[in-house]
Amino acid sequence: MAVMQYQPISPRRRPKGLTNAVWTANAAPAPQVDSLVGVHDVDVLVIGGGIAGMTTALHLAERNVDVALVEAGQFGDGATGQSGGIIAPDYIRHTPETIGEVLGEAAGERLTDMIGRSGAHVFDLIRQNEIECDMRQDGFYTPAHTEALAQQQRDMARQWQARGHRVSFVDGSQTRALFGTDRYCGALRFEDGGGLNPLAFVRGLAHVAIRRGAKLYANSPVRQLERKQGQWLCYTASGTLRARRVVLAANGGNAALHPAMRRTSLPLNVFQFASMPLDPAQRQVILPRGGAFTDKMPYLFTARLDGLGHLVSAFPMSYAVNGEKALYREAKRRLKQYFPAMPDPQIDYLWHGLAWVNTSFLPEIYDLGDDAIAIQACNGRGLATNTVIGSEVATMLATGDADALSVRPRAPVPVRFHAGASLLPRLLMSMAYLTN
Ligand SMILES: Cc1cc2nc3c(=O)[nH]c(=O)nc-3n(C[C@H](O)[C@H](O)[C@H](O)COP(=O)(O)OP(=O)(O)OC[C@H]3O[C@@H](n4cnc5c(N)ncnc54)[C@H](O)[C@@H]3O)c2cc1C
Questions:
Q1: Ligand 1 lined by 70 (C-beta under 6 Å)
Q2: Where is the FAD dependent oxidoreductase domain (predicted)?
Q3: What distance in angstroms lies between residue 50's CA and the mean position of ligand 1's atoms?
Q4: Can you state the percent helix, strand and coil of the chain, rounding each to 5?
Q5: For residue 326, how far is its CA from the centre of ligand 1 (angstroms)?
Q6: Ligand 1 centre from 336 Cα, in Å?
Q7: 158-163: long-range contacts (C-beta < 8 A, 24 or more apart)?
C-alpha cells in the first residue's frame, strides 16, 4: 500500500512573477470532465493525464478495452503542458551505435527504431485525428558548438541514415542561415522532428480518447493505491476505482503511488520562456525556415518559434539565478547572447517546469508485478517517445503481446543516495551557468 503525497504547484504557490505557459494563449479548451465520484469498475486504470497516460488511454479505448484515466489537476498540468513543445526524435546521451553497448544489440536497434520514428508517429497521430495544436514538422536540430562535436555529428548522421531515418548533417554556414546565430559550427538535422503546442496536443488527445470511449476524470488526485483480493483500488477524495490492471503514468508522482517507484528518478527544474512575437525583420533572420533546436551544452540552449511568432526557449534552474527580476534578466541575456537580431528582447511569458530524469537518460517502463506497470520516461525530452510508448503499452495490454514494447520492462532500481543525488541537477546547472 502506498500513501499519496500529491502536491500540485497551485497558482498561489507559484513563484512571484512567473506566468502561465505561453501554450495557454492559443490552446483550445480541454474537454469538460467530472472529478471521480463514487465507486467504478474498469479493466485498466491509468493514473496521470500527461502525454504518456493520455495516449495509453486513447489507444486502449480504440481497442475496445474498458479504461479510465484519473488526473490530479487538468490534462497537461504536469511536464507535458510545461514543456517547450519540441518534437525531438533523438537520444539525449546515446547514439544508434553506442546504445547497443548499453542494452545489447537487438534491444538497442529496437529502441533506436522507436526513437527515430517517434517524430513521424506524433505528426501522423495529429493528422489522423485532426488535432489543432500548431504542429510544424519542420525539423529538429542538435547544433554543435565545437568542431569536434560537428565531426561526431557527421558520423551520427551516417548511423541514423544507415537505419533508414531521415537525418543529415548541415554545415556551419547553413546552420547560421537556418538559425540566425553564429554560435554553432554545424548541426544534426532530424527531418521528422519539429514543434507543437503541447497543451493543445494533450487536450486534443483527451477529446479523441473520450470519443473512443475512455472515461476521463480531472481534478482527482489519487491519494492511495492498494492491491486487495486480486484487484487494484485507487482512492481519490470523493471516489474509488477498482481495476484489474493499472498503468502509472504520473511521472514524478509515480514515486508516491507505489513503494517500488520511490527514489527512482531525479528532479530537473527548468524555466521556459517566450519572447514577445518577433517583428517581420527578426522573422527573416531568426529561424526563417522554422525548425527547433536544442544544443548539447551543459547549460543548454534551445529555440523554436510558435504560431504566434513567440520565440520559445529555456534555461535550467541553478543556484546562480534567483528571484523574479533575475529570471527575466537571464531570459533576456540568453536571447541577446544567441541572436544579434534581438538586441533588446522582451519576455512575454516565463514559467517553471519540473522534469524527472532517469539516471540512464533512457525511457523506462517498470514492471511492478500484479498487473501493474509504470511509465517513467520524462527525461526532459519525452514528448515524442512517450507518445509512442503510450501506444505500445496499450497494444501490449490489449493483446498480451509483450513484444509490442520497444522498451524492455524491468524492475525499478532506486537511485543510490537519492536525497543527495536530487540536488545534483541544480548543482551541475549552477556550475554550467558559471562556465557559460
Ligand atoms: C520545462 C520542461 C520543458 C520540456 N521541454 C520538452 C520539449 O521541448 N520536448 C520534449 O520532447 N520534452 C520536453 N520536456 C519533457 C516532456 O514534457 C516530458 O517528457 C513529457 O511531457 C512527460 O509526459 P508524462 O505524461 O510522462 O508526464 P506528465 O506530463 O508530467 O504527466 C503526469 C501527470 O500525472 C499527474 N499526476 C501526478 N500525480 C498524480 C496523482 N497522484 N493522481 C493523479 N494524477 C497525478 C500530473 O498532474 C500530470 O498531469 C520538457 C519538460 C519540462 C518540465
A1: yes
A2: 43-394
A3: 6
A4: 35, 25, 40
A5: 26
A6: 29
A7: 159/95, 159/96, 159/97, 160/96, 160/116, 160/190, 162/96, 163/96, 163/109, 163/112, 163/113, 163/116
* pLDDT digit string, tens, across residues 172-208: 999 999 999 999 999 999 999 999 999 999 999 999 9
What is the whole-number distance in angstroms between the Cα of residue 158 and the centre of ligand 1? 32
213 vs 63: CA distance, rounded Å? 10
For residues 25 and 71, give the distance between their C-alpha atoms in angstroms, rounded to a whole number.
Answer: 22
Mean pLDDT on 347-364: 96
Atom of ligand 1 nearest to the CA of 54: 25
Whether residue 285 contacts residue 322, with contact meaning beta carbons closer than 8 Å, is answered with: no
Which amino acid is located at 267 in the chain?
A: P
CA-nearest residue, atom 33 of ligand 1: 48
Name the helix (H) or strand (E) containing 300. Answer: none
What is the CATH topology of the domain spanning 2-83+199-264+360-418? FAD/NAD(P)-binding domain (3.50.50)
CB of 363 sitting under 6 A from ligand 1:
no
User: How many C-beta neighbours within 10 Å does residue 40 have?
Assistant: 16
C-alpha of residue 3 to centroid of ligand 1, in Å? 21
Closest residue to atom 48 of ligand 1, CA basis = 78
d(CA 415, CA 369): 20
Q: What is the C-alpha separation between 35 and 73, in angstroms, rounded?
A: 9
Rounded-to-integer distance, Cα 210 and Cα 431, Å = 46
Give CA–CA dist 381/385, Å, rounded. 8
Atom of ligand 1 nearest to the CA of 52: 25
Q: 296: pLDDT confidence band, cut at 50, 70 and 90? A: confident
How far the first Cα of the chain sits from its last, in Å, is 46
pLDDT at 6 over 60: no
Is residue 12 predicted with pLDDT exceeding 60?
Answer: no
What backbone torsions phi and psi does residue 293 show, to the nearest 5 degrees?
Answer: -140, 150
CA 422 centroid distance within chain: 19
